[in-house]
Amino acid sequence: MSEERPSSIEREPSCEDVVEPALLPVIEARRRIAARLVPLAERETLALADAAARVLAEDVNAPFDVPARANSAMDGYAIDRVSIPATGEATLTLVGTAWAGRPFAGRLAAGQAVRIFTGGVMPDGADTVVIQEHVAADEASVRIDADVTPGRNVRAAGEDVAAGQRVFTAGHRLGAAELGVLASLGIGRVTVLRRVRVACFTTGDELRSLATDTDGAPPPDGCLYDSNRYTLAALLAGLGVETIDLGIVPDEPAATRQALREGARRADLVVTSGGISAGDADFVTRAFHEVGDVAFWKIAMRPGRPLAFGFIGKDDDAAPGAAFFGLPGNPVAVMVTFLQFVQPAIRRLSGRPDREPLVLPARSLSTLRKSPGRVEYQRGVMRVEEGELVVASTGKQGAGRLSSMSAANCLIVIDTDVDGVAPGDRVGVQPFEGLMPG
Ligand code: AMP
Ligand code: MG
Q: What are the start-end ranges of the H helices in 127-220?
């Protein structure tokens, strides 16, 4: 066994250190990013059918009650509860029918009942519906032989949404339920915020673009296919932003400057991959500094330790410029940093309220190696076992192993202070998939 010898080289902080000084905690980084991002203000008015996944620019109040009128929740007989004596027994005269969409025009008098179907408007003078299974009825009368609770089987007017009620506040995203509620309120047009525009480029002299006819041919020696472009494009598409693809930019300051400026001119946010680790600092980092106010952070996380964040001025400098994220180059780090930082940033720019990403408690089935001093996002497969959420590792966790991401259905979040996980220990999980599409 070789003993570790003291090094004569003065070492700089790196991701091999167990605890690095001056690392920025993930939550603090997210807070600093949020503090500097201003939600978009431009709005547009759309037909409701075109507004899925868009963000409301203004509050919506209910113009009327939903349901507009009290109606029956069941097929049965509408009665005035006071027509039933204490014994619960009564024979009432049938005076008409209330269909869904075709109300009974008259008014119920004492001792009368109206045949009513689900959704049918409650006739004036009726307050209760007795279900058809609980009566004996013929053409002319209906016999009831048990007590009925007043108001039973009636949906009150406004019980879903009351007239004048604030239904949604500005910043609310229009998902399936929201579109349905707006439709029920007769609101056919909505004013929403413009979609966020994101410009995207990857950096690296080693990168090669895919051609449609590439068909599995290996890249030239020492090169690799630009997989981050596809990963980023899919992540951005999932967020419903408008994406501007600026291609592959070589590791060269002038080209990087030009791409950053173009991105800032055309988009609200510029996202890049690669070129921000110490080895790239000389050429790419300088370009970032030259075109904008960009900070390089070492985040207390793995993967994804280096991250650049800031703003790039527009050419004429009159406009506020675009926000900028320089993500690491490693494919897993790209995804993890995107999910932890870029996604909340886009959420904020799009006008939605901030929210910390969801982390659920789970029991680990695996031994997970981990050093203290940083949060780790390992790839996991979670499932429910005997009513409990459990999670297993996908195996080796290198930041370049993108296949670990596709094998996973969640990220295992291991907190900063933890120095290793044994089977049975509690960890956090961030599920990849939610229930509601979009
Ligand atoms: P960098 O941060 O530029 O040093 O990139 C780190 C590593 O990530 C590189 O050595 C590549 O293996 C990988 N990488 C960088 N950019 C890409 C990309 N666009 N697609 C796939 N892998 C990439
Ligand atoms: Mg690179």
A: 176-184
Residue 241 Cα to ligand 2 midpoint, Å, equals 26
Question: Token pair for residue 3?
Answer: 């003993």
Mutation probe of ligand 1 site: the residue of 210, 229, 273, 401 with most atoms within 8 A of C-beta: 273
Tokens of 239: 């967020």
pTM of the shown model: 0.89
What letter does residue 419 receive in the DSSP assignment?
-
Residue-level pLDDT at 437: 79
The enclosing H or E element of 131 equals strand 128-131
Q: Give the separation between CA 237 and CA 327, rounded to whole angstroms.
A: 18
328-339 pLDDT, tens digit each: 999 999 999 999
- Cα 203 to ligand 1 centroid, rounded to whole Å: 8
Residue ID of nearest Cα to ligand 1 atom 23:
329
Separation between Cα atoms, residue 406 and residue 199, nearest integer Å: 25
Residues 6+ apart with CB under 8 A from 85: none
- Whether 166 and 63 have beta carbons less than 8 Å apart is answered as no
| Residue whose entry in the numeric block shows the structure tokens 């949906």 | 155
- Residue 238: CB partners within 8 Å, gap ≥ 6? none
- What are the distances in angstroms from CA 62 to CA 134, 181, 339? 37, 10, 35
HEC string of 238-277 equals HCCCEEEEEEEECCCHHHHHHHHHHHHHHCCEEEEECCCC
Rounded to an integer, what distance in angstroms lies between the CA atom of residue 228 and that of residue 197? Answer: 19
378-393 pLDDT per residue, tens: 999 999 999 999 999 9
Cβ of residue 202 lying under 6 Å from some atom of ligand 1: yes
165, 60 Cβ separation under 8 angstroms: no
CB-ligand 1 contact for 340 (6 Å cutoff): no
Instruction: Give the mean model confidence (pLDDT) for residues 101-116.
Output: 95
* 406 CA to centre of ligand 1 in angstroms: 18
Binding site membership of 304 for ligand 1 (Cβ less than 6 Å): no
Say how many Å lie between the CA of residue 22 and the centre of ligand 1.
Answer: 25
C-alpha 103 to ligand 1 mean position (Å): 68
HSE-CB at 289 with a 13 A cutoff on CA atoms is 8
Protein residue whose Cα sits closest to atom 17 of ligand 1: 329
